[in-house]
Amino acid sequence: MAQIVQINEQNIAYFIPMLPAYLLEELEADPDMLLFGVESEELAAGVCAAVVTAPQAEILWFYLAQPFRGTGIALEGFSELLCELQRSYGIRVVTADLPAGECDAMRRLLSTFPVTYTKLPAGRYETTVGRMRDAKKLSHASRNSVALSKLSGGKLRSLCNELGNAGNDLVPLPFPAELYTPELSAVYMEQNRPTAVLLVKDRGAHVEIPFFASLSSDPKALADVMYFVRERMEGFDAEMPLIMNLAGQRFLKLVRSLLELKEEDETGFVRNVRAGIDLSFLQESERETADWLETCGEIAAIMKGGSAAGAEAAPDAKGQRTTTKKENGTTKKKENGAAKKKESNATKKKESDTTKRGKKQKA
Question: Which of 92, 132, 279, 309 has the smallest CB count inside 10 Å?
């Protein structure tokens, strides 16, 4: 059975390997961010990071260690997490932003609950390297951009700190920078100061632009870093897919303009979505909440049995249905109760017979 614990200084060491570095940095800066651990049989099985500001909580990160996947622990743990947020923090709505084309496991998990989805301005757009090279508005030479590999560690940290402090809907700069291709990624410089960054990753089969952020008031900043990237991709196959994560309405509009994209033919654009779970279904009564948790536990137990669809328990090696621990416990309890009742009746009958014999002898 999975349990939820709040992560603190005493137990954080067990969960740190499951947390990305940037979240730990955000944790120090954001007093509303809380970490929850998922435990199974006293082992650290998973971790969740959430910004909790009643009456709403936003899930930033939910991770389950590999050995516990496919066992139903994710469902049990997430169910317990929702109850803990509602019971201890007064949360009424839980949300999670899901990037387009990713997080399939999280989507399957959320489908177990009464979830609704809302489309966001950001999204994922797929085009080709050749289309980017042919864009007339990107035919100029880069003037103020340099490769990320040319930026010193101090200047990169300074840029990241400034981006983090600027807020305004910026996505946190992913760390470490080595996860991206430093020679392809571009930094926009103003008076020897980095003010914008476009991260690019050569993944072999395709090129990915996962992130852009700017502190610059210069409207040409994005165009300049894209000039730089286009120049660096001259040797790439024109048909190679180019995937861009368009984080934010401003970035989306700029990319549409630079690549001369039209909304009606943007078949490659898929929007991110925000998942929302209304926790009012937990507030009807404590008994119904307990019944709901019991049902989640039964579903998780079925999943542990190996059923891909999760609709019924998988047959074991003998062709019999796998029973849950709870069912086994209930069966044993009934059997023990019946045995005790039978033994009690036998004892009473024996005592009655002994009494009758005693009365006869006395007579």
Answer: 309
Instruction: Give per-residue pLDDT as tens, 212-221.
Output: 777 887 778 8
How confident is the model over 275-328, as pLDDT tens digits?
Answer: 999 998 886 545 455 565 565 555 555 545 443 232 222 222 222 222 223 333
Q: Are 63 and 34 in contact (CB under 8 A)?
A: no
Alpha-carbon torsion (145, 147, 150, 156), positive or negative = positive
Whole-number Å distance between alpha carbons of 76 and 295: 10
Token output for 199: 């991260």
**Residues whose CB is less than 8 angstroms from the CB of residue 9 and which lie 6 or more positions away in sequence, other chains included:** none
Cis peptide before 172 (omega within 30 of 0): no
- What is the pLDDT, as a whole number, of residue 273? 87
d(C-alpha 106, C-alpha 74), whole Å: 9
Contact in structure between 4 and 37 (CB atoms under 8 Å): yes
pLDDT at residue 46 greater than cutoff 60 = yes
Sign of CA dihedral 214, 216, 217, 218: negative
Give me Rg for the CA atoms of the chain: 29
User: 98-135 burial, b if ≥16 CB within 10 A, otherwise e?
Assistant: bbbeebeebeebbebbebeeeebebbbbbbbbeebbeb
Q: Which amino acid is at 172?
A: P
Q: Which helix (DSSP H) or strand (DSSP E) does residue 271 occupy?
A: strand 269-278
Judge contact between 50 and 58, C-beta under 8 A: yes
Q: Are 322 and 305 in contact (CB under 8 A)?
A: yes
Q: What is the mean pLDDT of residues 41-58?
A: 94
195: pLDDT strictly greater than 80: yes
In this structure, the strands spanning 56-64 and 93-98 are parallel
- What number of other Cβ atoms are within 10 A of residue 185's Cβ? 25
Return d(Cα 114, Cα 203) in angstroms, integer: 37
Average the pLDDT over 252-277 and give the result. 74
CA-nearest of 57, 49, 117, 46 to 87 is: 57
E strands present in 7-149: 33-40, 43-53, 56-64, 93-98, 115-128, 145-147
Is the CB of residue 58 less than 8 Å from the CB of residue 96?
yes
Cα angle 256, 262, 268; round to 5: 80
